Amino acid sequence: MAPHTSMSFLAYLRLKILVTCLRLLIKVPIYTRLRRDRLLTQSLGVHTQHFRIPSRDSGRFIDAHLYYPDSTTSPKPVLVNWHGSGFVIPLHGSNNVFCAQIAKETGIFVLDVDYRKSPETPFPGPLEDAEDVLRWTSTQTDRFDSSRVAVSGFSAGATVCLAAAIASRSLLSISAAVLIYPFVDMSVAPEAKMVAKPIKPPPPYIAHIFNDSYVFDNAKRTDPRVSPALAEPEHFPPTVAIATCDGDILEPEGLALAAKLQDAGKKVPLKMLKGLPHSFDTGAEKGTLEWKKREELYIWAVQVLKGALKP
Q1: What are the distances in angstroms from CA 217 to CA 7, 24, 75, 154, 250?
Q2: DSSP-derived 3-state class of residue 177
Q3: In angstroms, rounded to a whole number, what is the distance separating the alpha carbons of residues 183 and 228?
Q4: Per DSSP, what are the bridge partners of residue 63?
Q5: In order of start, what are the domains of the chain with their CATH numbers?
Q6: Nearest-angstrom CA–CA distance, 156 and 254
Q7: What is d(CA 206, CA 214) in angstroms, rounded to the nearest whole number?
Q8: How confident is the model at residue 74 (pLDDT cuts 50, 70, 90)?
Q9: What pLDDT was estimated at residue 6?
């Protein structure tokens, strides 16, 4: 049997083989894009530090990179970020341009954290990692201002981010969540996720691999810890900023969450990007529409965070 799940060993083995093939297929193209972003990050003049954050499991640690500007005055506000992955692709560090730019433009700490991937570690493992990071963050009062904490997440990272923020609300006061092209409702089948003009949408069978790897049991996909869009509005941070792309089949669930929270009286800055697919910002090339819109998106996030984390 696979750990933490009710799937059979044969089902786990099938997913393991498919995910391994996916990881190998994207290795070269994603390396080129990530290398481009690493070079850009280095030019931003932001410092980085590696951390190994203790998890709830004895002897196991969670990798994190801390981004910070020249000023080392502490404690500072902190943004904790979770990268996209489809729950299965190891892409820690793929948001380095975002993290560096937020640190540079806001003067705050940005903690970019990893989490275990599926199917090797399905739900609730990745969520537990995120909760452990927020618990650790709450103890670092000499470094982080625990009254000014925000979270962010990209794609599947938004699922982990939002579910952890909701679960940790009694432990840590989280001022804002910034969700970039979020995946927040697994209760909707991949075939039902559509937009008028999709751009490079993943085939439904790929989405099923992602979903099955993270939560194999369909009955669990209505759990708000799996699909945080289904959580009660009062459980969300006071500010939830949502960015969507109109070529992304996940846009409808992002917009539905925005409408739900607005109706409940939450502050919901909304950024709708036109003519762009999911994950357009990773490795964007200078002079392209993706480059221009990435700058626009990250500046929007800077302004949201400045407003939410002001003294």
Answers
A1: 8, 26, 43, 24, 21
A2: strand
A3: 9
A4: 52
A5: 9-308 (3.40.50.1820)
A6: 12
A7: 13
A8: confident
A9: 67
